[in-house]
Amino acid sequence: MRHCLFAILLAFPLAGCVADMPDDGPVVDDRQEGEYPPHGDHDVVGDEISEEELLEIVPKAGGCGQRWQLPPSVAAAGRRQSVSYNSAGSQCSGGATSGARELGSYIKNNFNQINRSVPGGGVQMYNCRQVRGGGSLSVHSVGRALDVFIPTRNGGANNQQGDQLSNWLVQNAEHIGVQMIIWDRTIWYPGSRGERCYGGSHPHNDHIHIELTNDAANRRTAFFRGGGQPQDVPETEQPPPSSAWIGSACRTDAECNFSHEGVRAQCNKQRNPNLGVCTIACAGYCPDRQGEAQTFCASRDDLGGSGGAGFCLAKSSGVNDSCTRHAGFTEVQVDRYVGRTRAPSRRDEVCAPVLVNNRPPEPNDPPEPEDRGGLLCGQPGLELSDHGERCDAGENVWRCACSGNYGVTISQVCRSGRWTTYHTSPRSCASCSGRYSSACD
User: Fold this and answer.
1) Cα end-to-end distance, the chain, whole Å
2) What is the largest CA-CA distance in the chain?
3) Which of 178, 264, 318, 430 has the least C-beta neighbours within 10 A?
4) Any idea where the domains of the chain sit in the sequence?
5) From CA 258, how far away is CA 247, in angstroms rounded?
6) What are φ and ψ of residue 169, in 5° steps?
7) What are phi and psi of 420, to 5 degrees?
8) Mean pLDDT across 238-255
9) Domain 372-440 CATH class label
10) pLDDT band with cut points at 50, 70 and 90 for residue 430
């Protein structure tokens, strides 16, 4: 049986298709509620591609080692949901449907984790356009899709916040009329199809894409008719995090009083016997924490050790003032420790204690390249930058940059003090500077 392919309307990290935007500037707050261009690529293309072919795309488009994982009880509830899938049809509706608007209002009133700084109060719905690369309409075009924005955590998905709402939607899919959800590299369908890795170019780490059935859009399901109540909105109760985190300065293990997935952190003094850094062992990837610098799985061989292992360190960024936040730390170029994972090879700059040893400096060390972004992406003068990094260029200022994570040219816009990645391989970086134009697409 043939299935539908979901393409990507990119608004934030990586390439693919993007939502249509006017050539004369970025989105502004002058539209009616629910009529903002949606962010994310999740449109029904039709029956041109099989489910097997869709699954082959997954490893090519992005890794799924860390994504939204449904708890066993939620996954079991999801398998009990019976909801049919309704495609978009052939004509735009002219606006968001009444069901989409009512669900959007319910979510805003009952879930405090919505990123309300995004136009539309954190919920966007209607955009009349065809699916990129196909002739059929997007579900956003008929007003039956919602993008619910969740504040990111260091440029990645904030699962503590987004999972709560996504799990609730799964548990109440039949009651509401939810036919599909995409969140944090996971796509979910009601019933036996369940969830799988979503391989689209936008990881959906800053918003949850929700599609409604025709009945839900027209307020004909139990949720809108008052026929029984949805499961209670779960409360988020998290213990306060330790002040120490990956990359914190330390002198004893006791100062690194945090753990990840049951693994206790340690104070690593590999580079300096008098000053260590809090870290945990890793292969491929490391966890991030909101408000802290992004982390990187560094190869121990690059930090004065040996043995082919990796440990997590904080990346040099504005969050840690380019590694000067802790006295005695410096920037160090390291390779990613991949281990047996499928993480791509990469080199990055991390924060580590100043090296203290008796070895003379290597005479043939290559000089630090002055144009790292230009060398990586092949366009001189591009600054290395990724989604979520700090910006001080001014609100809604656009530019091109080089993604250190993926080694490709990207367009970015400065919003709320952070760079938001909009598109990969923009049309013309020479014309994507300052104000938005189609050259940024």
Assistant:
1) 35
2) 77
3) 430
4) 2-225, 249-353, 372-440
5) 12
6) -65, -40
7) -105, 120
8) 78
9) mainly beta
10) confident
